[in-house]
Specification:
alpha+beta; 6-stranded antiparallel β-barrel; 22% helix; 3 helices
Length: 153
Amino acid sequence: METTGTVRRQAAERKRDTLERLATERDVWVSTAHPEHGPHQVPLWFSWDGRAVWMCTGATSVTARNLREEPRVRLALPDTFDVVLIEGAAECFPDQEVPAAAADAFTEKFGWDPRTEEGSFLYIRVTPRTVRAWRGEPELRGRAVMRAGTWLD
C-alpha cells in the first residue's frame, strides 16, 4: 500500500477530521443485507445532526426492505484514501413521522423535501456504534475513533 508521505494523525485529530467531514460531505455509501437476498450497497445523500447520520430513500427500495429485516448497517464516506467507516443500527421513520428537525435539516442541505413528493419515503437514522478513520497505511493501527458509541481521544 502506498502511503504518499502521509504522516500519522493522533486519534483526536482523526476524530476532528471525521466530524468535519460528516458535517460537510454530501454522499455516503450504505451497505445493508437481507437474510434471503444477500448484501446491497447504494450511495445516498446524508445529513449529520451532531449525533447521528440521517438519510432518505424510497419506502419500497431494497435498502428500506433490508433495514426492516436487518437494521445493522455500515456506512462509508466516498474516499478510498481518507477512509471513514461507520457501523450502527438503523432506525426507520416514514416520511410523515420523521422528527421535523431532522427532515428540515435534510431539506435545507439538499433543497429537496421528500415529505412533499408523491409516493412514500423512509428516513433512516444511524447512530454510530463504531467509527474507524484512517489515511493510508500509517494510520491502520489504532484506526478506531469510536467504540461502543463513545468517541475516543
